[in-house]
């Protein structure tokens, strides 16, 4: 019988809570960490996370704590926090994290201030093995035990395969990859395309335009990812096409729904002000745009989204500009 693993999940938002519940199905001991002690007290007393994942019971065997010393005894740490807080939270974890313990980054974004993929930040701050988890995985469906498939990537394929074996179970298929750059780039950039897709649907531009947008968006994702050092085939799999299909077509997606409201005429400020979930694609758009500019990568959709979200250029003006330009060839 295999030795029981202790998995600590840092971050009790929707996806962190769902991952903690998923990890319980592997037979592992699981601890869910949240920063605020009052929130932890609420989760412990109600065994519900109504704010982020309503309607899902938190089993009695799920430990919940605000004490970071729980990391001392962990075999694996899953980091499930907003991308822009990665550096700050890692510095808080560092005193408790034994150097041999794998850290699995589960956010999908790029850090704007650091101009970096999230694994790059972790590798600068820690000597631990670093991996990333990505793919089409809505938190509510994962928590409900609906069949889900994800990618687990690490530069060391042996580590990736080991972690994938530990995290998979009957309703979670977990594939291993050594293309950590491609998996991260795909997960981050698809958020930009998902907002664009939402805007198109909010404007009622039709199914033809959405199909064209997603096809050209996937090509742009791959072009950027390969420039960063990823592999093109990664963008045709779960981390790329799979996550793009999910995130850019469903109102359950924070990024698509943000774009949908924006296309329908609401302001950026009003939409973000009423959300308690993070819309990763908003900041990631600027981070990806700045990265493509510095690398000289052709990324017209990313540039257009940056114009809308951060330069506040009117949506219809940006669309008219895109449609006025025609390339002779698709590739």
UniProtKB/TrEMBL annotation:
PROSITE patterns: NAD_G3PDH, PROKAR_LIPOPROTEIN. GO terms for molecular function: glycerol-3-phosphate dehydrogenase (NAD+) activity; glycerol-3-phosphate dehydrogenase (NADP+) activity; NAD binding. InterPro entries: 6-PGluconate_DH-like_C_sf, 6PGD_dom2, G3P_DH_NAD-dep, G3P_DH_NAD-dep_C, G3P_DH_NAD-dep_N, NAD(P)-bd_dom_sf. Substrate binds at residues 108, 254-255. Keywords: Cytoplasm, Lipid biosynthesis, Lipid metabolism, NAD, NADP, Nucleotide-binding, Oxidoreductase, Phospholipid biosynthesis, Phospholipid metabolism. It is found in: Cytoplasm. Transmembrane segments: none annotated. Pathway: Membrane lipid metabolism; glycerophospholipid metabolism. Catalyzes the reduction of the glycolytic intermediate dihydroxyacetone phosphate (DHAP) to sn-glycerol 3-phosphate (G3P), the key precursor for phospholipid synthesis. This is Glycerol-3-phosphate dehydrogenase [NAD(P)+]. The lineage of its organism: Bacteria, Pseudomonadati, Pseudomonadota, Alphaproteobacteria, Holosporales.
């Amino acid at each position: 019988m295999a030795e029981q693993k202790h998995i600590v999940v840092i971050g009790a938002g929707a996806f962190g809570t769902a991952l903690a519940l998923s990890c319980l199905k592997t037979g592992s001991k699981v601890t869910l960490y949240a920063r605020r002690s009052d929130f932890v007290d609420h989760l412990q007393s109600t065994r519900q996370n109504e704010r982020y994942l309503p309607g899902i019971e938190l089993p009695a065997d799920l430990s919940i704590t605000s004490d970071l010393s729980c990391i001392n005894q962990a075999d694996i740490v899953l980091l499930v926090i907003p991308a822009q807080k990665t550096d700050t939270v890692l510095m808080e974890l560092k005193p408790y994290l034994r150097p041999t313990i794998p850290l699995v980054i589960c956010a999908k974004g790029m850090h704007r201030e650091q101009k970096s993929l999230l694994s790059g930040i972790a590798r600068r701050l820690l000597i631990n093995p670093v991996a990333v988890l990505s793919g089409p995985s809505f938190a509510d469906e994962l928590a409900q035990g609906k069949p889900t498939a994800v990618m687990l990537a690490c530069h060391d394929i042996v580590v990736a395969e080991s972690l994938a074996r530990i995290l998979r179970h009957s309703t979670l298929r977990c594939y291993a990859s050594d293309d950590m750059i491609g998996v991260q780039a795909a997960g981050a950039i698809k958020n930009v395309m998902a907002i664009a897709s939402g805007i198109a649907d909010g404007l009622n531009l039709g199914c033809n335009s959405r199909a064209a947008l997603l096809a050209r968006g996937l090509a742009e994702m791959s072009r950027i990812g390969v420039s960063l050092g990823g592999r093109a085939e990664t963008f045709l799999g779960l981390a790329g096409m799979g996550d793009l299909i999910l995130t850019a077509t469903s109102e359950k997606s924070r990024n698509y729904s943000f774009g949908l409201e924006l296309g329908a005429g609401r302001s950026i400020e009003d939409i973000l002000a009423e959300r308690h979930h993070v819309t990763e694609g908003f900041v990631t758009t600027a981070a990806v745009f700045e990265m493509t500019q510095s690398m000289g990568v052709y990324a017209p959709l990313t540039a257009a989204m940056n114009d809308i979200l951060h330069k506040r250029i009117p949506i219809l003006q940006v669309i008219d500009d895109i449609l006025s330009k025609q390339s002779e060839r698709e590739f």
